[in-house]
Design a protein that fits this description.
Four copies of one chain form a homotetramer. Chain A is α+β, with helices and mostly antiparallel strands. Chain A is about 35% helix and about 20% strand. Chain A has five helices and nine strands. In chain A, helix 2 (about 80-90) packs parallel to helix 4 and helix 3 crosses helix 5. The longest helix of chain A has 24 residues, at about 180-205. The interface of A and B includes residues 50 and 144 of A.
Amino acid sequence: MPENDPLEIAAEALCTTACWCYAQGWVPATSGNFSVRLGSRILVTASGLDKGTLTREGLLEVDLDGRKVAGSGRPSAETGLHLALYRARPTAGAILHVHTVWNTLISAHHAALGHVPIEGYELLKGLDGVGTHEHLEQMPILENSQDYAQLTAGMTAALDKFPRAHGVLLARHGLYTWGDSVADARRHLEALEFLFEVEMRRLTGGHS
Amino acid sequence: MPENDPLEIAAEALCTTACWCYAQGWVPATSGNFSVRLGSRILVTASGLDKGTLTREGLLEVDLDGRKVAGSGRPSAETGLHLALYRARPTAGAILHVHTVWNTLISAHHAALGHVPIEGYELLKGLDGVGTHEHLEQMPILENSQDYAQLTAGMTAALDKFPRAHGVLLARHGLYTWGDSVADARRHLEALEFLFEVEMRRLTGGHS
Amino acid sequence: MPENDPLEIAAEALCTTACWCYAQGWVPATSGNFSVRLGSRILVTASGLDKGTLTREGLLEVDLDGRKVAGSGRPSAETGLHLALYRARPTAGAILHVHTVWNTLISAHHAALGHVPIEGYELLKGLDGVGTHEHLEQMPILENSQDYAQLTAGMTAALDKFPRAHGVLLARHGLYTWGDSVADARRHLEALEFLFEVEMRRLTGGHS
Amino acid sequence: MPENDPLEIAAEALCTTACWCYAQGWVPATSGNFSVRLGSRILVTASGLDKGTLTREGLLEVDLDGRKVAGSGRPSAETGLHLALYRARPTAGAILHVHTVWNTLISAHHAALGHVPIEGYELLKGLDGVGTHEHLEQMPILENSQDYAQLTAGMTAALDKFPRAHGVLLARHGLYTWGDSVADARRHLEALEFLFEVEMRRLTGGHS
C-alpha cells in the first residue's frame, strides 16, 4: 500500500470519521458500517467491529460484486446495500451508515408516510447542490428487514424514486448517507443529524 | 500477577470501560459497580470509589461466596447481586451496573408492569443471540430495596423467570447487564442504553 | 506554599473540579464560583474568570470576614454566601456553585413551593448520611436577588430551616452544594445534578 | 506577521473558539463563520471550511468594504453581515456566528413576534452591561434569506432598532453575537446558548 494511494488516504479519513461517530454515540454496540470506493475497488468495514477503535485493519477490500479481494474477517452484512448505493450513485466515493437516537425516532415518526420531509432550515445548505433553506429534502424510509436481498432491492428502488435525496433511512434502524469524498459524506451526515434532531424536537415540543 | 493472566487482562478492560461509563455520565457520584470472573475467581470494585479514575487497585478479589481473597478496601455492597448473577448465568465473564438518566426513567415508567418491553429496533441485534429487530426484549424490573438479601433473591428469581433477558433493572436505581467478556457486556450496555433513550423519548414525545 | 499544605492540595482538586464543571457546561460564560476552607483560611475564585481554564492563580485567600489576605483580583461577588455557608456548616471544607440547565429549570418549577422535594431514587445515597432511596431530600430555593446582603441572610435562614439539606438553590440562578472535602462536594454535585435532570424529565414527560 | 501583533493574537483565540464550537456541535457541516477586527483590518473565515480543524490559514484579511487584502480562498458568503455589524457596533472586536439546535428552535418559536424575549435568569449577567437577572433581553429575529444584500440591510436595521441587544438571530438559521474581544464574544455565546436551551425547555415542558 503506497502512502499516496488515494484509496488508502480515503481509508484513513474513513477510520477517523468512524471513531468520531462513535464518540458522538452514533454507532453504539458495534453497529454501523462504513466504506470508501475508488473506481472498482471498495473498502468496507468488517462485520462486528467496535467502531470506536476502527483502524485500517478493520477494512476489507471487496469488488463491485461484493467478493472479498483482500483483508481478514467477513465483510459487513450490509455490504450489499453499499454496493447498490455505489451502483445508483456513480460519483459517490464514501458511504456512512449510523444508528442515532434522532434518526431512529424520525424514521419511526414518518414511517407510514414513507419519507421524511424537511424544509426551511439554513442547514439544508450543508447538502450537495442545495443553495437555499427553501429546499424541500425528501428522504425515503425503507421498511426494516433482515432479508438483505429485499433491503438491497428497496435501496435501489428508493434511490431511483428519490433521485435528489441525500440519504436513505431504514425505519427504526438507521441512516445511509454518502458523498464524493469522506469529507462530503461526513458533511452530509452532520447536516442531516442536526436537521433530524431539530425537526423531531419541533414536532414533539408542542409549542413550536 | 503475570501480565498474560486472562483475568488481569479482563480487569484492565473493565477499568477502561468503567472510566468510559463515567465520562458518559452513567456512574455519577461514585455510583455503579463492575466485576469480571474467571472460573471461581471474581474481581469486583471496592465500595465508594470514583469510577472516573478506577484502576486495578480499585478491584478486590472475592470467591464465589463473596469472601475477600485479595486487595484492599471493602467489596461493593452489591457484590451479592454479582454473585447471584454469575451463579444464574454460568457463561457470564463480566458484569456492569450503571445508573443513567434513561434507565432510571424507563424503570420508573414500567415499574407497575414489572418489566420493560422493547421491540422493533435494529439495535436489539446488539444483544447476544438476537438476530432480528422483531425480537421482543423483556427486561425484568426489581423493586428497589436496601435489603441486599432481598434484592439478591429478587435477582435470582428474575433471572429464572426471564431466561432470555439481557439485563435486569432495579426501579429508579439502575441496570445490571453482563456478557461472556467485558467487550460483550459493554456492547450490551451500549445497546440497552440507546434503546432506553429512544423508547422513553418515543413514549413521552406524544407524536410518535 | 509548601507542596504538602493540605489547603494547597485542596486548591488543586478544586481547580480540577472547576475545569470539569466547565466541560459539562455547568459554569458557562464565567459563571459559578468555588472555594475551599481549612480552619480560618478560605481560598475562593476571583471574580469574572473563565472556569474552563481555572488555575491556582485564579484563587484568592480571604479570612472568615471576607477580607482579602493574599492573591490578585477581586473575590467573587458571592463570597459572602460562601462565608455564610461555612459558618452554618462547620465541617464543610469545599463549596461548589454552578449554573446548569436542569438546576435552573427545577428551581423555577418549584419556586412557589419554596423547596425542591426529591425522593425514591437510589442516587440519593450519593449524599452524605443518606442510606436509602426512601430518603426525602428537601432543598430550599431562595428567591434570586442582586442584593448580596439579602441573599446571604436568606442563605443563613435556609440552612437553619433545612438542617439536613445537601444544597441550596437560588431560583433561576444556580445551586450551592458543599462537602467536607472537594471530593465530597463534587460527589454531592454529581448526585444532585443527576437527580434534577431525572426529576424534571419525569415531571415534564407526561407519561411517567 | 509579528507574534505580538494584537490581531494575530486575536486570530489564534478565534481559531480555538471555532474548534470548541465545533466540539459542542454548534457549527456542523462546515456551517458558521467567525471574524476578528482591529481598526480597519478584519480577518474572517474562508468559505466552506470545516470549523473543527480551523487554523490561521483558514482566515482571510478583508478591508471594511469586504475586499480581500490577504489570504487564500473566498471570504465567507456572510462577510457582508460581519461588516454591517462592525459598522453598527464600533467597539466590537470579534463576531461569532453559529447554528445550534436551540437557537434554531427558539428563532422558529418566536419568528412571528420578531424577537426573542428572555428575562429572569441569572445567566443574563453574562452579557455586557447587564447587572441583574431582572434584565429583559430582546433579541431581534431576521427572516432568513439567500439574498445577502437584503440580510445585510435587515441586520443593520435590527441593530438600529434594538440598540441594547447582544445578538441577532436569523430564523431557523443561527445566531450572530459579538464582543469587544474574542473572550467577550465567546462569553456572550455561552450565555445566550444556555439561555436559549433553558427557555425553550421551559416553553415546551408543559409543567413549568
